[in-house]
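Q: What structure does this chain adopt?
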Amino acid sequence: MDEQNNTPVDVVIVGGGAAGLNAAQMLGRSRRSVVVVDGGEPRNAPAKGVHGFLSRDGVSPAELYRIGREEAESYGVRIISGQVSGAAGFRGAFTVELADGAVVRGRRLLIATGLVDELPDIPGLRERWGRDVLHCPYCHGWEVQDQPIGILGTGPFAAHQALLFRQWSANITLFLNNAMEPTELELHQLAARGITVVHGPVAALQVDNDKLAGVLLSDGSLVPVAAVAAAPRFMARASAFADLGLKAVPHPMGMGEYLETDADGATGVPGVWAAGNVTDLRAQVLSSAAAGAWTGVVINADLMAEELEDAVTAYRGSVTA
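A:
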């Protein structure tokens, strides 16, 4: 980066997904200088479409972010492609380092890096993720309604997940996969809803002609399904910010690790905020965008308060001079 492009800005945003871009748009509209650094690896890239987003239902993730980047750039936001390798500094003077050696500086820092879905090591699972291997019925249940759906046991949440997906299909199979054992109450609930429970480990997913055909068990039997629901472990992308004293911590619900913030997205490090999935593991695209917008408002207010204090100090100095 040349010296001109390395001039400190008001806010550096790491992550160009829904949260980061909406924060950038809000800050750009507030006439703030903003740089967004985006690694180009959105969590929902494999998905065919985004759902539950008013006025954007079914739009592909790539198209949604293209529109978001154009809108942010129309307000003067600068977007840089690159991977962030580290960050340092303090409130008013943060330095964000990129893997290619470039450096971006800003008065405030917003972390909107999202999360990584950790999936069980089952052949075929990762390859089909976001296509016919799903985890959220509100995001993709409509697309697989009335089809045979398998629920992969990854932990105690699987029984609830099976009962939840039952709303979208009457043909649900819960594969315990030696990862959980339903309680007596859950077994009664599963039976009452006509959900089949299969014991034993899952060996692989069988795919024929680029289409999920079924779940292959370790005993060699195949259970036909058109989709599989698997609850991953959600892991915040936060390792690049360790030198700032920020570290992902276990989520109280046991679903993974996240960055702790207050209700406005402020972390424990002054001048650093977080928004979207990196701090809210359950957030969908729409709620991540909303969180980014609000965090942008809060960051602008923080900058404004600092500028007002400086202006009052300078005014008093001029009056007494």
